[in-house]
Specification:
Among the domains are: 1-56; 405-582, 7 Propeller (Methylamine Dehydrogenase, Chain H), CATH 2.130.10. The strands form 15 sheets. A five-stranded antiparallel β-sheet has the order 48-49-50-51-55, with no helix packed on it. The protein has three helices and 57 strands. It is mostly beta strands. GO terms for molecular function: microtubule binding. Keywords: Cytoplasm, Cytoskeleton, Membrane, Microtubule, Repeat, Transmembrane, Transmembrane helix, WD repeat. Belongs to the WD repeat EMAP family. The chain crosses the membrane at residues 113-134, 203-224. Residues 138-211, 221-387 form the EML-like first beta-propeller domain.
């Protein structure tokens, strides 16, 4: 309650400060115009008086006002628009088609990497299940999930796939129920959706039986499998337990494994079935336990005693947890370690044979057999490795491991850069769909921009520090600090002679750039915002800057004139901008939906052709609008795939692709821009009824509630 009151008071203070600043600017504009009118009256120039009077009246009438969280935002209509009311908004001709998915969810998921009979590795990240052909290096995507995918398994036929998702909420705060998709991996056609209305919080693990068509679904527990030799027997494991379930007459009964003289581990994290029918488990103590069925001891337990499941053998395997076990052809076993980051090969009688370490990629999360010798390895640093003990392992899939915000595309090459809270700066190739190189910073990066010559890139960090990296040598060629708060935007002028740095200390720092982007000297500082800088853009002539702030201001700056604030914003209505990433402005006003609060749109980007604008919203969606889109409720194409707020979007240098970046989902989606009737289509929003020249937005908060479900359910699936 107290936090709510404090937040309300902070919002009121911000609103009062913003309103006061706006009122002062209006008074200054008024004071500047009155002397001009007086001069014209004294001179008796009646014709010029009438002309000026008309233009002044037009400037007042040809303005659009919108409100965000009670804050009025005035935007002036450009001179080339004669009648704003007659403007008609259409959805863009261009559409998006998902081309590539960068990343893998290994940090907090288990048993989520399999090999299909088609030679494709199947795994997931965000709301997308990826089918990656490990030899042809091509991708296909299953995209029917409405929230983050959390678990995956394949049918014994290696064609059918089951994938389960977590619960979530839509943009209106309504709960989205979790369920499981069963689909054909060859056609990507959904065969069944099961469990809808059955689960409350999410689906954490799924398994197919080997005989009759059953699927087991559960959460909280770490692993579940049907016994391959008995489809009425199901094994589950989790916190300090292993359960042996029996399915009979539609009901499940369980028996708990008995640890006896052995120390009970905190977690049993994985298990496999040996060729002899025993169950092998890996636990948090670093041991592999061999479980077997013991016949009931009538003398001890009495008449009718039933068999029990006990530990037959304990094998010390890893320093730290055993995260995964994989049974190979011929009976050999692979185990993957957590703390020691090792992969160990064991003989059928659990004698260690070979081992290797994958220290650069995190702990071993899961292992999948390719051909008895070659394996795929998923790691906790969201990488998938391919290799053998003899030849070593190389990464075929890589990604960030924490929230991402910084995104920049190269001005002339098919390359883009990302940075985020994992302190990694990554440079990716959009043609070869791979990571070219990465480097680790001392602090986490939040924003970036390439110099127009393409030789260097600047990266803004969380402490007010910013670096300039050479794209070829990966070396830091310049290192500066402005203030002590995080930087939110870096933007070079079109000719590369200036760099503007937007900070959370409310200032924009402007630097002269020389020596092909390797040398910087402070030119000036833009002082006038009453809140932190969020976005900024340069004019095409490189003389002016437009900026947005956290309290929804739109300000204009005369950089060439000494970083002066342009008090009369009306004078900037016809200015042309080299880029358009500001989320507030006349040309992009239509991207805001009614009822939005000021944080619903995280980023936008106009294409270089100036035909479309892409929008990253807070509800996991990417939108494509016609540019300009100055009318409210502008129709657009909407695309899903991210499982978290979309933090940034950028077009490649030739507008052939759009890149979108998720926050917590650590996922980068590469979309191909299609013309005409091709593309995914997405959701096309119908044009709303025409509005007056005032739009009102109201604050609405959609809570995100996720959790766990302690249920185990066995559902019958169609054959």
């Amino acid at each position: 309650m107290m936090e709510g009151r404090l937040q309300s008071q902070e919002d009121e203070i911000t609103l009062l400060k913003s309103s006061l600043a706006d009122a002062l600017r209006r008074l200054r504009v008024h004071d500047q115009l009155i002397p001009l009118l007086k001069q014209q009256l004294i001179a008796g120039v009646s014709t010029r008086q009438r002309v000026h009077g008309v233009s002044l009246q037009k400037s007042l009438s040809q303005s659009i006002k919108m409100f965000i969280r009670g804050r009025p935002i005035t935007m002036y209509v450009p001179s080339n628009i004669q009648n704003y009311e007659d403007l008609r908004m259409e959805p863009p001709v261009e559409k998006l088609e998902l081309d590539w998915v960068y990343g893998y969810r290994g940090r907090d998921c288990r048993a989520n990497l399999y090999l299909l009979s088609s030679g494709e590795a199947v795994y997931f990240i965000a709301c997308v299940v990826v089918l990656y052909h490990i030899n042809n290096r091509t991708q296909r995507h299953y995209r029917k999930h409405t929230d983050c995918v959390r678990c995956l398994t394949i049918h014994p036929d290696k064609v059918r796939v089951a994938s389960g998702q977590t619960a979530g909420v839509d943009k209106d705060g309504k709960p989205l129920q979790p369920y499981v998709h069963i689909w054909d991996s060859s056609t990507l056609i959904t065969l069944q959706q099961i469990g809808l209305g059955t689960f409350e919080r999410g689906v954490g693990s799924v398994a197919f039986s080997f005989a009759v068509s059953f699927t087991v679904i559960l959460h909280l527990m770490f692993a579940v499998e049907f016994n391959p030799s008995d489809s009425t027997n199901i094994i589950t494991c989790g916190k300090s337990h292993i359960y042996f379930w029996t399915l009979s007459a539609g009901s499940l009964t369980k028996k708990q494994g008995i640890f006896g003289k052995y120390k009970k581990p905190k977690f049993i994290q994985c298990f496999v079935f040996s060729l002899t029918g025993d169950v092998l488990t890996g636990d948090s103590e670093g041991n592999i336990l061999t479980w077997g069925k013991s016949p009931g001891d009538v003398k001890t337990l009495g008449k009718g005693a039933k068999e029990t499941f006990q530990i037959m053998r304990q094998t010390r395997a890893h320093d730290g947890s055993v995260f995964t076990l994989c049974m190979l052809q011929g009976g050999a076993l692979l185990s993957g370690g957590g703390k020691d980051r090792k992969i160990i090969r064991w003989s059928a009688d659990l004698a260690p044979e070979r081992e290797c370490e994958v220290k650069d990629f995190g702990a071993v999360r899961c292992i999948t057999d390719v051909n008895g010798e070659e394996v795929l390895v998923g790691t906790t640093r969201n990488a998938i490795l391919r290799g053998t003990f003899s030849d070593g392992f190389v990464a075929i899939v890589q990604g960030h491991v924490d929230e991402m915000w910084g995104l920049a595309t190269h001005p002339s090459q098919n390359v883009f850069l990302t940075c985020g809270h994992d302190r990694q700066v990554c440079v990716w190739n959009t043609e070869e769909h791979k990571l070219d190189w990465s480097t680790t910073l001392e602090e986490y990066g939040l924003c970036a921009d390439f110099c127009p010559n393409g030789a260097v890139v600047s990266v803004g960090l969380s402490t007010g520090r910013w670096l300039v990296l050479d794209l070829q040598t990966k070396e830091v060629v310049s290192d500066y600090t402005d203030g002590n708060e995080q930087l939110s935007v870096m933007r070079y002028s079109p000719d590369g002679s200036f760099l503007a740095v937007g900070s959370h200390d409310n200032f924009i720092y402007v630097y002269n750039v020389t020596e092909s982007g390797r040398r910087y000297s402070r030119y000036g500082k833009c002082n006038g915002h009453s809140s932190f800088i969020t976005h900024l853009d340069w004019s095409k002539d490189g003389k002016y800057v437009m900026s947005n702030s956290g309290d929804y201001e739109i300000l204009y700056w005369d950089v060439a004139g000494g970083c002066k604030l342009l008090r009369n914003r009306y004078e900037s209505k016809d200015r042309e901008w080299a880029s358009y990433t500001c989320v507030l402005g006349f040309h992009v006003m239509g991207v805001w939906l009614e009822g939005s609060d000021g944080t619903d749109i995280n980023a936008l980007c106009r294409s270089h052709s100036e035909r479309v604008v892409a929008v990253a919203d807070d509800f996991c969606k990417v939108h494509l609008f016609q540019y300009p889109c100055p009318k409210p409720k502008a129709p657009n194409h909407s695309y899903e795939g991210h499982g978290s707020h979309v933090t940034n979007v950028r077009f490649t240098h030739c507008d052939s692709h759009l890149l979108s970046m998720g926050g917590k989902d650590t996922c980068i989606l590469q979309w191909e821009v299609k013309r005409g009737g091709t593309g995914d289509g997405g959701e096309t929003l119908k044009e709303g009824k025409r509005q007056s020249n005032q739009i009102t937005f109201y604050w609405s908060h959609a809570p995100n509630t996720t959790g766990v479900d302690l249920t185990v359910k066995c559902l019958h699936t169609s054959p």
